[in-house]
User: What shape does this take?
Amino acid sequence: MSQLSRSLSELLGRDPKKPRPEEVAPKAKEVLAAQRSDKTRIEEIRIEIAHKAQNKMPEKLRRKRWAVLIFINLLFLISYVLDIQMLEGALTASRFVGFHMADLNSALQVMLAYKHVVINLLIGTVTVFIMWWLLGGRTFCSWVCPYHLLAEWAEILHLKLASKKLVKDHPFDRRARTWFWVIFSILALVTGYTVFETVSPTGILSRALIYGPGLALIWVVLLLLFEIFYSRRAWCRYACPIGLTYGLVGATSPFKVQYTLENCFHEGECRKVCLVPHVLDTVIMGRARELKVDIGADCTRCGRCVDACPTSSLNFKFKGLGDLL
Amino acid sequence: MSKVQKTKRKTPRSRRSFLRTVVLGVGLVSASLLGFIPVLQHWVKRLRPPGALLEQKFLASCIKCGQCVQVCPVEAIKLADLDEGFGVGSPYIDARAQACDFSCDGLQCVLACPTGALTHEINYPHETDMGIAKVVRPESCLAVLGQGFKGQARGAKFTGKLRYDEVDRWNPIPVREHPYDLELCDLCVRQCPIEIRIAQCEAGKPPSGDKNQCPPQHAIRLEPMENGQGGKRMRPVILDGCVGCGVCEMICPVEPTVIAMDSSKSRGMSV
Assistant: This one.
């Protein structure tokens, strides 16, 4: 199974599999063997973990990402209120200094429901496709989607309550998202209505911010309450077809988070903060197939693992032509 | 080997998680399908912006971005809320509050629409078909009663705007800043954007100097009433050139309005 097909099948909901011995590159085996036998290294890990429990590092990347997310969403609002025509419309479709942009999932819904594509929508869709392919696909989720930000705040609350044993996380089957994607696509095709837009918190929030709040926000609040009290990050993890659409786009993206086996202490700090921890399966001792592993398509490039990793084993990587050759 | 592991992993816990997931799936899909109710029941009869496709096609093609809202110079267009089901985020016009007076001349909302939900096949106000005006309360019409009108058409608090060419060719102003003094109320005819264009064309001054802007048919006129006492009583009559823009409904000084828009036929929703 190639790296890409593994990445795609995990995106669609399959659990990551342990590599068979023959799948692990000889060099990776050597490094793992050295790590296992290195007693001082294991001692170092213990000290490291104790030290980190006392001094929590600020999440610099997270703050930057929030600033970018808020800025982009405010740009829609400012552009409208001040009538400066920078970024007109909402996240579903917009014009950036005149250039058409269309959210890929909204465009897909419209194309399936209407069964006709006007040239402006095609231009907007292709532009956005290329843009998010370059930027990593699900990068949209963590760096732009307004629901992602609210869900992160809800998650902080959920984790606080969970640490006091007041709530418990109830995970769902990750394949649900693939089913939702298929079902909502079929519904758009068969009913002729953009059914998913009715419940899409991304569209609802974006419009509420720009054109004023409405009843639809009640739906968003219900989703957030569900995530706080019942299931951590449920919408983004198990439901949102937008995430899957962008995940597919970003599967072959040059922009990735890359894992370096040699530096890794296998502490698992990255997996604790990750929205989609299955993509970080490779950091578990013995799971890495190569010395350097690209993190899969479901990764939102949010960078929390990059911040969380004490040994800099996870880093953003923009693969140029040189890396591909 | 891997098969053995798989059957081992089917613990009660994973079965519970599977059941939970099914419940989640049914719940979310049902919630989204609730959006069908207002649409199928025709609960929503809206005036849509110029060029809007028939209702079903319109809701299918609208991407709910509100770019039409942003370009409208009189801010006539609003976005629907969740109570309109699949119509959430779709644009509509509440003519009584703010009608489309075509003061952009070039149908900016149509040009702004990225998906063709507002069809790009029309270019001029008279080519639109938003609905048709109906005289719903002729008994309270000032012209029918033979009365004039003096003052602000909709009172001092009304925020609606119109473009008055004689005041400012380019910018719409609040209706309250443009009081009237009429011997016989003819506001619905006087402010009709189609009638205004016909008058401009007859005077040899079509909007933007473009003869294509000239509407081929009249939209509304006042007709003398047969049993009028003293011949001063008139009644508004809607003609074939009416596009349902709603300006007559907005400007009508009587509460409740004498003229109202009916969009059901134009929207393909006549039941």
Q: What stands out?
A: The CA atoms of residues 68 and 143 of chain A lie 7 Å apart.
